[in-house]
Amino acid sequence: MKSTKFFVGATLAFALATTTLFSSCSNDEVVNNSDRVAVKFASTGVSAQTRIDGVNWIGNDDHIGIYMVQNGSSSVSENAANIEYIANTSGSSTDFSPFDPAQTICYPVDISNKVDFIAYYPYLASVAEEGKYSVDVSNQEGDINLLWAKVDNDAAGYDKTSGNVTLLFTHQLAKLHLTVVGDIGVGSLSGLIVSINGINTEADFDVMTGTWDTGNSPNSISPKEIDNGENYEYEAILLPIETLDTSHTVTFTIASGVYTWELFSNIAKLEAGKKYDYTVTLTKREISILGSIADWTSEGTGTGEAY
């Protein structure tokens, strides 16, 4: 993925210790009883499949941010906060290296000081004291993505004898994919305008806890049209919503009229990491809906009607 694939208007807000306080070590240091040891990071194929393209890391174009925290807490250890790392290879799995070797994350010297690791993608250098990553999904033409990982070695924590740390990333946004077809009598779908209504477009993600605030910016979103030469397909990356209600609708506007799908009637909530795949049939009688909900890495199918 290109390094420019950031949230439109997104800023990462998290307290970062100054560079002069960060205690780094050589990425080649080895384990012994006293030396500092560099942490080796990798991502498995399972993690890579949670990326926005669902397939591969793109080598040095993919930058992540990593935090080393005290085991069982969100307190930063060794001042290792928001350290930029890059993917070393392209493919379904990769390992990571520090963007700046002088910023290599090292384990605490004392092996009794256990640590966990938090990571996110894509990396953003901008930081502030609130500790929030602000996300804006109003412009669907941009490349929108947010992955997050926290690993704690099955609650035991890591130390300098632990070996490689595998980061298991998951999507923190939801994806809605629509295929729109017209029934007999509806007429041409040429010029179709799709609008997803009542959806929050802005919210803050807490990098340290992996949680969202509720957001309070309901608006209409124009999904991105997927040009495949045949079907009318649209896709939107959306903020998670715990409960969909009557304010959450999708409207389809063509020359013969406006057709409304009550989104909440088929989908109870929008969950992070889920893909909602629906075929919508516009009819004079009603909107017909058939769809499925699956993990983002899966391709679900379904159909339905709108009126």
TrEMBL record:
Transmembrane region(s): none
Lineage, opening ranks: unclassified sequences, metagenomes, organismal metagenomes
Species this chain originates from: termite gut metagenome
Full protein name: Fimbrillin family protein
Record-linked Pfam families: Mfa_like_1
